[in-house]
Amino acid sequence: MSEVPALAIQNLSKTYDNGFSALKDVSLTVPQGGFFALLGPNGAGKSTMIGIISSLFKPTTGSVHIFGTDLLENPSIAKQYLGVVPQEFNFNMFEKVEDILITQAGYFGIPAKEARPRAKRLLTALGLWDKRDSKSRELSGGMKRRLMIARALIHKPKLLILDEPTAGVDIELRRSMWEFMQQINIEENTTIILTTHYLEEAEQLCKRIAILDHGEIRINTEMKDLLAQLSVETFVFDLDTPLMRQLALTGVTDVFQPDNQTLEVTLTEGESLNGVFDQLSEQGITVASMRNKANRLEELFMRLVDKNIQSADSMKEAGL
């Protein structure tokens, strides 16, 4: 028998009272284990989907199963499997850090004597143990974000949803948070669904990805298969010395000079990066460094969204 998925959404729709259709017959399966990326532009329907999974909203149609348990029929059981880290801070700002975790554990029937060792482990791992007696309002933004993660994990959920967990967090802290989440994923086999605007995080962490746009799933595939579709990449060349003339290169899709010491070269599949270096060398131009202008997933994502916008505009023009 096949393994029960961590999350199974079938024909999920949500239409609000004002007539806005946020989700349109969405079906999505998230297998157990690993990281799963759920991406989409603002207004795509991600928050509505997470709200339904979290029991904040009721769907207009469709079903949600968490580890095989129907969320609508058995919400108390289904929610035992689920931990959610929302975008907004929603804990008591006047409650002490450790008490926030103990209180949360109590909602799941976990007595304080069992919750305290778990809280200590989580707060220590997330660098918050020395703040355990501080009121949460005294924490920095990054510390509050980590407290949200600790609270979501206190009852040992099998499925964790992270909604923009590193928004506004500095690079060093982001890395330490992801190291901790990878540890939780491996040691406790916690399935993690990630939404983020830092698309490099999704590319580095997630094996599977779904892209939601205008309330519909546009892509649902393996990350490696999606990235294989990338046929155009833009490279930024930092030059050793200023270039005092407009440069022409052959065998490339586009060349752009933002300033006299920088080149942006766009290559389509089949065009040679080595050929670019050869031409620059022949013209006496030395490259100090080179980098991708955007990560691969970001380029794919923007292309998909632009394509959908153009399609919608064409339909409008045609009166459809």
Radius of gyration: 24 Å
Question: What's the CATH superfamily of the largest domain, by name?
Answer: P-loop containing nucleotide triphosphate hydrolases
Strand order of the largest sheet: 6-7-8-3-9-10
Mean pLDDT: 89
Pfam family, one: ABC_tran
GO molecular function: ATP binding; ATP hydrolysis activity
InterPro entries: AAA+_ATPase, ABC_transporter-like_ATP-bd, ABC_transporter-like_CS, ABC_transporter_ATP-binding, P-loop_NTPase
Protein name: ABC transporter, ATP-binding protein
What would a concise description of this structure say?
The protein is 36% helix and 27% strand. The protein has a 6-stranded mixed sheet with strand order 6-7-8-3-9-10, sandwiched between helices. Strands 2-1-4-5 form a 4-stranded antiparallel sheet. Strands 12-13-11-14 form a 4-stranded antiparallel sheet, covered by helices on one side. Helix 3 packs across helix 4 and helix 3 runs parallel beside helix 5.
3D structure, described in words:
The protein is of the alpha/beta class and 320 residues long. The chain folds into 2 domains: 7-222, Rossmann fold (3-Layer(aba) Sandwich); 232-296, Alpha-Beta Plaits (2-Layer Sandwich), CATH 3.30.70. Helices cover 36% and strands 27% of the residues. The protein has helices at 46-53, 75-80, 97-107, 112-125, 141-153, 171-188, 199-205, 223-227, 273-282, 296-317; strands spanning 7-15, 21-30, 35-39, 61-66, 69-70, 82-85, 159-163, 191-195, 208-213, 216-222, 232-239, 254-259, 262-268, 287-292. The chain has a 6-stranded mixed beta sheet with strand order 6-7-8-3-9-10, with helices on both faces. Helix 6 (171-188) links the parallel strand 7 (159-163) and strand 8. The longest helix is centred in the C-terminal third of the chain and has 22 residues, at 296-317. The protein is globular, with a radius of gyration of 24 Å. The relative contact order is 0.12.
